[in-house]
């Protein structure tokens, strides 16, 4: 067993993506809480931007990297985390379903009026709890064990896969597009960045 002192770049990328997701979820909560308190209602278009970000970024970019490279490599080295990794992969799939439900609830609120708001708000709160717990589990349970059990060659492979993925996104201009969308979302919220759990 080798213990790495250096923080692998793949874990830095996951952490950075968690911070962005965390900020977007905070914006979602801010949005529904502003409506609930009768304050100035943010444009619904902004909530669609948040859902679009979540559909595009975590679903297409973040989760596949975790499943295919990091979780797979951990499973090659130990079965100690199998149950937790399987649960996290199930949550990746379940998260997609929750986002579709949120999209549907937003449409009902937009076109069905205030009576549809409580269901929409409940789904946002539920999604926030769900996703914060998911990220906490990856950061607090999986990453520390991964740092202990993966060797230098393992990290080299996982880091290379993450960097290749990032290069592809850069070349396609997608990361720039995600960053722009993220800035737009962050601008509407007096957000505090990071993993602070506001729920
Ligand atoms: Fe995940
Ligand atoms: Fe994650």
Describe the structure.
The chain has one domain: nmb1532 protein domain like (Four Helix Bundle (Hemerythrin (Met), subunit A)). 81% of the residues lie in helices and 0% in strands. The chain has helices spanning 9-36, 44-77, 82-112, 117-149, 152-171, 174-188. Residues 191-196 have low confidence and may be disordered.
Give me the count of strands: 0
Helix count, DSSP H or I runs of 4 or more residues: 6
- What fraction strand? under 5%
Largest sheet geometry: none
Poorly predicted runs are 191-196
Radius of gyration, in Å, reads 18 Å
What string gives the helices and strands in order? HHHHHH
Task: Determine and state the CATH class.
Answer: Mainly Alpha
Mean of all residue-level pLDDT scores? 88
Overall tally of domains: 1
Secondary structure topology:
Layout: H1 9-36, H2 44-77, H3 82-112, H4 117-149, H5 152-171, H6 174-188
Helix pairs in contact: 1-2, 1-4, 1-5, 1-6, 2-3, 2-5, 2-6, 3-4
Features:
Four Helix Bundle (Hemerythrin (Met), subunit A); elongated; binds fe (ii) ion
In short:
The protein is an all-alpha fold and 199 residues long. Helix content is 81%, strand content 0%.
């Amino acid at each position: 067993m080798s213990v790495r002192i250096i923080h692998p770049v793949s874990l830095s990328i996951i952490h950075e993506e968690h911070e962005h997701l965390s900020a977007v979820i905070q914006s979602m909560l801010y949005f529904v809480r502003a409506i609930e308190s009768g304050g100035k209602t943010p444009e619904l278009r902004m909530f669609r931007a948040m859902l679009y970000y979540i559909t595009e970024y975590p679903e297409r970019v973040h989760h596949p990297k975790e499943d295919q490279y990091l979780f797979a490599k951990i499973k090659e080295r130990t079965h100690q985390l199998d149950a937790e990794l399987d649960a996290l992969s199930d949550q990746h799939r379940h998260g997609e379903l929750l986002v579709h439900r949120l999209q549907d609830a937003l449409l009902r609120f937009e076109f069905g009026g205030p009576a549809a708001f409580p269901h929409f708000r409940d789904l946002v709160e539920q999604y926030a709890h769900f996703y914060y717990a998911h990220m906490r589990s990856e950061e607090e349970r999986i990453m520390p064990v991964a740092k202990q059990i993966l060797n230098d060659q393992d990290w080299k492979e996982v880091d290379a896969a993450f960097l290749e993925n990032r290069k592809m996104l850069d070349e396609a201009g997608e990361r720039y597009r995600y960053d722009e969308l993220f800035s737009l979302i962050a601008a509407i919220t007096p957000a505090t960045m990071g993993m602070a759990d506001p729920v």
